Amino acid sequence: MLGPQQPTPVLERQGHRPLSGRELAARARSHIHTAYDSPLGCDTAMIADALQVSASHLCHQYRKAYGATIGNEVRQLRIARARNLLATTDMLMKEVAAACGYYSNTYRTFHGAFRSVMKMSPREYRRGVFEGRIQPDHSPDLQSRVS
Fold this sequence. Notes:
Blueprint: H1 21-35, H2 44-50, H3 55-66, H4 70-88, H5 93-99, H6 106-118, H7 122-130
Helix pairs in contact: 1-3, 2-3, 4-5, 4-6, 4-7, 5-6
């Protein structure tokens, strides 16, 4: 059973000086890139609470800084990891889904997210990689995939 999430060191505030919008977004992004595969690690309200700001303010500053929503960034990171796992392992789809942070309605949610990003199902992607029709991206640096 999961206990209450504790703020990660990247989210801990130093002193009482308010963070600038860019600093706020950078701290949130750093946390997202380390916790995207956790079921609660990328909850906007939890991140905002740890940074002592409102969720709407965090979302606004994040979008202003990076031109993307927190949810979209999480989805892109999770799908990048799924692509790697699909191309390099024989894990079951539900195992890939769980390894990428999709824990509730595991396969259905994962399948929908994968299809919306990749325009094909996870099975079609894996088949295409193994048949040589799709060139997998084996870049170990998932952070560089999302700007």
